């Protein structure tokens, strides 16, 4: 599969090893040479819009913000923006021809809120939490925590927030969890949060009979429901297929309901995913009531 098709699944940012394992060393090197990949901090590679955004920010004397800033910090995201997202002061006038090449946000920032040509980590998280859809904001927050941003600082930012979007920011901060492996899991968890009676947490270790000892992507311990988001480590051999089959068979034998969701459905057909989750929760709750 081409790197251009892989990057959205990986959250817009990936390590060199991950990209080579998914494609080949030659394809990776060709992508870097052609500009299809650009290097960001901590030895990670991202889509070229990261550098394009900094160049545009410099052109309009602004700063990269929102998802574009998250990518510049090396955080994974649900969706890479079609145009670089740039914040400029409220009184800044941008010619229409220039505006068409970027997604503009008007806001006055202090020097403490920027880092180079991008909003700093704290400001990026606050802006994303206030302005993005919940699942997109959660993906960014999960990734930031996974990369070492202090959870207590995120909670403090949310608790101190006032005005438009502050309630959404507090919800994102309360639910953010650095254990989430990738945006795929984060978005699936966001969908599950809207299902009455379902309470999942990421990376749950499950042990049981017949040697059952697996780490599940998401699990509701009370309802014994497992949600699996098969990320990008697609299996290419019979041994891997057998391991997966045994894993899920043992979970079912131990009394768990296992649901596996494709990336395309989680990202592009959330109503269907939510309906499936709702039906399974209702069925599980009815079965529990019948036993009592």
Automatic annotation (TrEMBL):
Pfam families in alphabetical order: DUF559
Gene3D superfamilies (alphabetical): VSR Endonuclease (3.40.960.10)
DUF559 domain location: 217-276
Protein name listed in UniProt: DUF559 domain-containing protein
Source species taxonomy: Bacteria, Bacillati, Actinomycetota, Actinomycetes, Propionibacteriales
